[in-house]
Amino acid sequence: MTVRDVDMSVRIGPITMKNPVTTASGCFGFGKEFADFYDLSVLGSITVKATTIEPRLGNPTPRVAETPGGMLNAIGLQNPGVELVIAQELPHLRRYEIPVFVNVAGTTVEDYVDVTKRLMDSEDVDAVEVNISCPNVKCGGIQFGTDPLQAAQVTEAIKRVSRVPVIVKLSPNVTDIVAMAKAVEAAGADAISMINTLVGMSIDLNKRRPLIANGVGGLSGPAVKPVAVRMTYQVAQAVSIPIIGMGGIMTAEDAIEFIMAGATAVAVGTANFVNPLACPEIIEGIRQYCLDHGIASIRDLQGAAWKELA
Amino acid sequence: MARLTILEHREIAENMMWLAFSAPQDLRYTPGQFLHIRVTDGVDHLLRRPISLCYVQGEGGAKSQAIAVAYRVGGKGTELLRKKKVGEELDVLGPLGNGFTLHEGDRHALLVGGGIGVPPMVELAEQLTQQGTKVTSIIGFQSANVAILQEELSRYGEVLVATNDGSLGLQGFVTDYMTEELLATADRFYACGPTPMLRAVQAKMDGKVEGYLSLEERMGCGIGACMACVTSCRMDDGSVGYKKVCKDGPVFSAPKVVFA
Ligand SMILES: Cc1cc2nc3c(=O)[nH]c(=O)nc-3n(C[C@H](O)[C@H](O)[C@H](O)COP(=O)(O)O)c2cc1C
Ligand code: FES
């Protein structure tokens, strides 16, 4: 079968992405830096850095360390706070005419709700992505994303105040990722993104201390990909909302692996640091793969790793 | 981003390497900027390594013939880089960041380099000399076996060398050369090196000579997107906040830098 053109479009709830590739939060800033390398309008959507109600200074340095096939980071959610993000960072993204997903973070349910409410005053937000890999200071610092009840609670609270779709970003640092996914779906999440980073550590033999100042950090990059693909494969079969898959995507083949595992769209994170042109190259690579394999719509590949052959 | 062909690659002191590439097209640069270099094409060593631009051969701009850096082999990544041979290509991003600002009326500038902070001083000395500023280089090393670029810098002016163990030049620190008399002759200073050295230089120059510090911090992206490389700085409104070494720096006006 030959195809002349590939339908690359996918839907995340009511939002249409013209291709399945977005950026992973925290790995693309607010887009400005990458706009020096290419026209951001080629992206399926842009997902920007985590935003909190107050400005956050973040963690001491060193904040990153290279590890085999990946990296650890503990940036500590440094951001200028939601007011400045709305005023200074989001408006310039409109000109690219692509959906803008804003990642929100907090340390209490009220924090998340307040950030979301503020974002609703902006015309420049097409979806919120809820980063639940943050400690709940009112619950002994346990991460929202490691307890299905708390994850559901924060999802519900945000759903109540959001007029745009709510994407809940799952933490992989759990025993049962499917239980987490089902909990946020039941709480009203419009989509799931996964995975956030895996908690890790690396030690400097000379200094006899962890390589990053925070001690523990989040592992990302190719090293986490098999974990992320496995989790996507499990969750996709257990929920009916769309999934944005991520974790170690460097190439179009990696992205297609996630789509075959059941992701509707994919996000590219760490790869942007290595190759600023990673996203456009992956988008073109997916299109080429489909052409080469006679696939008329990228949606035909979604879940191909477990769906019955037609 | 470009794939540049290696023209020269050799050890110039113990574990100190000199690496020159074909110049990228339409090269634009200022001394003090850095190149962000991939050490392998695979994913084992994922992150790029920031390495200061040392010297540009040719007339500059589009007429440049070669671009050189010097780096220290200090881990598995740079160990792999060292194995790259003349004729092979490297994936290079940059030059990136904000380099040194040159001031046209300056008569005399002090160039202060420590260890692997010495390389950017070479291109800086070249450009300062071209605009008619006299340069004096003050460079420091652990010991003679890791001393680099003394000869190159001596083409531009006097070079004062200090080593921690006294095996070359004065035993002590670069700041030991910074007498009141010398400082009185200087219009500007430019410094790059380890944090303790930069802190000492900042203190020594404070209120006497205006200048710039080039900082180092572990990086992720190198282009300002990941917030890995922040450093404390005095902001325009007087408060202390973070600036990004990769994008706002690596060169900062000396009084703006706040050392922990
Ligand atoms: C430096 C860095 C900063 C990140 N910041 C955020 C963040 O602010 N919010 C968030 O939800 N995830 C954040 N992440 C996680 C990524 O969005 C992504 O889930 C993870 O890195 C896995 O994808 P990758 O392997 O393609 O990077 C960050 C990751 C990195 C490497
Ligand atoms: S290294 Fe990413 S912001 Fe500086």
Automatic annotation (TrEMBL), chain B:
- Its annotated pathway? Pyrimidine metabolism; UMP biosynthesis via de novo pathway; orotate from (S)-dihydroorotate (NAD(+) route): step 1/1
Per its UniProt record, the required cofactor names are: [2Fe-2S] cluster; FAD
Q: Which PROSITE patterns match?
A: FAD_FR (PS51384)
**Co-factor binding details:** Binds 1 [2Fe-2S] cluster per subunit. Binds 1 FAD per subunit.
Residues annotated as binding [2Fe-2S] cluster: C221, C226, C229, C246
Task: Check the record and name the SUPFAM superfamilies matching this protein.
Answer: Ferredoxin reductase-like, C-terminal NADP-linked domain, Riboflavin synthase domain-like
Give start and end of each FAD-binding FR-type domain.
1-102
Q: What PANTHER family does the entry give?
A: DIHYDROOROTATE DEHYDROGENASE B (NAD(+)), ELECTRON TRANSFER SUBUNIT, DIHYDROOROTATE DEHYDROGENASE B (NAD(+)), ELECTRON TRANSFER SUBUNIT-RELATED
| Self-association state and partner proteins as the record states | Heterotetramer of 2 PyrK and 2 PyrD type B subunits.
Give the UniProt family note.
Belongs to the PyrK family.
Q: Identify this protein by name.
A: Dihydroorotate dehydrogenase B (NAD(+)), electron transfer subunit
Q: What is the lineage of its organism?
A: Bacteria, Bacillati, Bacillota, Bacilli, Bacillales
